[in-house]
Structure formats: structure tokens, C-alpha cells
Amino acid sequence: MADSPLLWWRRQGLRFRLTVAAAAVLALALAVSASVLLSVLDRALIDTVDESTRAQAQAVRVAADAGTLTSPITTHDGTIVQVIDDRGRITHVTYGADRLVPLLDAEAREKVLADGQATLLDGRPYAIPGFLRVIVLRADRGQTVVAARPISEIQTSLGTAGRVLFVGTPALVVLLAVASWLMIGRTLQPIAALRRGASEVTHTARSRRLPVPQSRDEVHSLATTLNDMLARLEEAEQRQRALVADAAHELRSPLASIRLQLEVALGHPDGQDWQETAEGVLEDTMRLSRLAEDLLALARLDERGGVPARREPVDLDDVVRQVVDRYGEARLTVCDPVVVRGDALDLSRVLTNLMDNAVRHTSSKIEVALTADGVLTVTDDGPGISEQDRDRVFNRFTRLDSGRSRDEGGAGLGLAIVRETVRAHGGTVSLEDAGPGLRAVVRLPVSR
After folding, report:
1. Homologous superfamily (CATH) for 312-443
2. pTM (2 decimals)?
3. Fewest beta carbons within 10 Å, which of 152, 216, 254, 385?
4. What is the pLDDT of residue 363?
5. Domain 55-153 belongs to what topology?
6. Which residues pair with 375 in a beta bridge?
7. What's the whole-number mean pLDDT along residues 284-310?
8. Angle between helices 218-267 and 152-200 (to 10 degrees)
9. What distance in Å separates the CA atoms of residue 257 and residue 281, rounded to the nearest whole number?
10. Sign of the dihedral through C-alpha 31, 33, 34, 35
11. pLDDT tens profile 18-48
């Protein structure tokens, strides 16, 4: 079954379609313009002939009224003139004009006089080639002046102009179509370069970028946008690879510990303290569970695209009291009533992670404060963190002390969860020097 014209058209290349569309529009415009030009030219030339003929007729009428007509009547532009008396006889004519038969009979003359406009007359019955434009004026003593002017020259000129346009218009359309084909092809070259560049961006060449044209046009903006997208995709892929590698590294330690304990217990069952083995395996299992929960929390934050799971009014002071009550070494110094919009469970996890981090590093005390402007602080008196590392600790799987045993700390995901959650709620989180110790500062927008 043959394809429909519309389907065939859609399958053609953009360059072909643009060229054909431009040529079609141009051909239509030129055809309309040529038609209008010939029509206007014809009207203008006919009006010129009519004005000239009327001027000659008026000059003859003046002479007829004054009785000074000559025989034959003399005209300078070849106008044919007949003067007819009240009895319908031709009394004066120009040289070569018919003295017996009027160009217009009495009825036709009266009609032209009533219209006041020139009329078109076939001159062949009067041995005059071509058509004539005829003007009729009434003179004194019942006389009528009939003036006629051949328009064969006008018709010849219009025919010549029509033939020129008939030949020149298609030639011009073809010329402009070729020019459009070349210009459109040159315009589409940057897009073709983008396509070739995109085909080269493979799995093994992720760092390549698309070529950006020098012109500051839409293609330049498209190439810049696509390169920004490629950079974001590359960055996301690198983060994903780092996350998988770090997660595998973190999972390997507790799994290796579980395997070692079980192998030792099975290798020496008689001398093994199974209670101690079970406690060790349970501890490593809890570490795996916490790591899985942290990874799931980060995955959900990434999936939501920086938006909290719920946006509802949350009494942040109640959340703070409930969390602090679970830590005996913590002291709540200030707790003003504060209402924020977000998810209560996520905000509780933020404070829990900050508290766990403070408990892990504090020497003796932890102080928590919540002020009315939505600022939550958790302060410990531990060793603190150097200024150059305070932003880096919010990265995933970041450990400042690489030699420290993982049994003494977390997987390095707690502060990353804190930052992503606070950002999702429209706030910020930072670390400050507490001299001695460290102060975590969370700023959340207060619901008005």
C-alpha cells in the first residue's frame, strides 16, 4: 500500500522540507505579485490613454463650439476624431478616419455620454487593427465629438511583460530555491555537528562534549544546554559509582566480621562461647541494618528530587524535646515554640543524626538549643573539626579519621542525610567552632 502524501512528506529531511516550503511560498508570492503588477500596469496605461483621448476630444469640442474646426482635424498623438452633427452626419474627421460610418451609433453614443467613461471598441470592423478606447463629448448646436485611441501598443507591452514574468518568475523561484537549499544546509551544519558529537559520546567517552558553534543563536543555546546536561549526567554517574563502591566497602567489613566469627565458631565448636559469638554477629548485623536504612533514606531523598515526603505544619519544639529526652548526656538549654512546614519524621532524623554524631565525639556534655527564628544548634565539647574539613564532612561516606575503627563510628552517611533533608525543607546546615568542640547549626524557614 502506497504511503499517503502527508506521511511521505513527514519522512523527508528537514532541509528538503524547508527548501520546498520556502520555494512554494515564494512561488505563490511571486505569482500573486506578477498578477497584481500586470493588472495595475494595464489599469495605469489605460487610464493614461483615456486622459490623453479625453484631452484631445475636449480640444476638438472647444474648436467645434467656436466654429474653427479644420478639415481634416489635426491631432499629435494619432487620436481618431469624428464630429457628428445633430442629424447623425459626420462633418469633420481626422486624416484617414471614416467619413461615412460613425465609430459608435446613436444609441451607443448616448450610453457612453450617460456613463461619462470611456468604452472599449473592436476596431476591426472599421479597418482599424486591435481595440480602441472611445470617448464621447457633447458640443454646441447638437454636435457630438467621438475620439478614439488604439491600445494595440498597450496590449503588446502587457504581453511582453507577461512573457517576461512567465519565464522570469520560475527562473527566480529555482534560483532562490537553490540559494535556500545552500543557506539552510549551512544553517543546519551545527546541528549535524551536534548529531555527530552526540554519536561519539559513548559509554567509554563520557567526558566528551558536543561542539558549540561560534554564532550566538538557538543552536548555540542548544549545544550549551546539552553540554550542561552531559556534565550533570557525568557527575551523577560518578556519584553513583562512588556510592556503589563506598557502599560495597562499608558492607564488606561487617560481612567479613560475621564470616570470621562463624568460621572460628564452627572450626572450634567445643571451646567456643556461643553467647559471645551471637552478640558479635548481632552487632555486625545491626551495623548492616543501619547502613541499609541510611542508604534507603538517601535514595528516597534523591528520588523525591529535593522535596520532603510531606509538607504539613510541624511543632519543631516538640520534635526536639522528644529526641533530646532519649539522650541522657544532652541538655536542652533553649526550646522556643517553632512551627515549620515539612515532614516530622525527616526532621526527627536530622536531630537524631546530629545527636549521634555529638555523642560519638563529645568529652562530657552536649547542649541543644532551638530559638524562635528557626535556628537549631547541637553543641559538643569534643575535639572539633578543622575549618577546611567542615564542608567536606557532609559528603557521603566521608570519614575524617580514615584509620579509626568502624566499630567506633558510623558509615559516614549521617551528615549527608542531614544536609539533603534540611535542603529539602528549604533550610541550611553548617558547622562552627564551639571552642572547644563543634556546633552544628540548622536554619529552617519558620511557618508564619
Report:
1. Histidine kinase-like ATPase, C-terminal domain (3.30.565.10)
2. 0.49
3. 216
4. 83
5. Beta-Lactamase (3.30.450)
6. 443
7. 74
8. 20
9. 8
10. positive
11. 888 888 998 999 899 989 999 999 899 988 8
